Amino acid sequence: MTDLRQAHGAARAIAAAALGRDVGPMATAESNSHHVYVGSHAVVKIIESDGHVRLNRETALAPHLPARLTARLLDSGLHRLGTLDIRYACYARAPGASPGIGLPGTDGATARSLARAAVRQLGLLHSWSPSGSAERILRESPGDGGFTGQAALFDSMENLAALDRHGTVPRRLLDGLRAIAEHAPPHARSTVPVHADCHWGNWLVDERNEATLLDFEWARFGEPADDWFFLARFSGPHTHIVLDAIAEATTSSVETLRAECEIREAAHLASDLCLALEHPDTHARIAADRLRALDELIIGRFWWRHTR
Question: Which of 39, 47, 128, 308 to pair with 178, CA 20 to 30 A apart?
Answer without folding.
Answer: 308
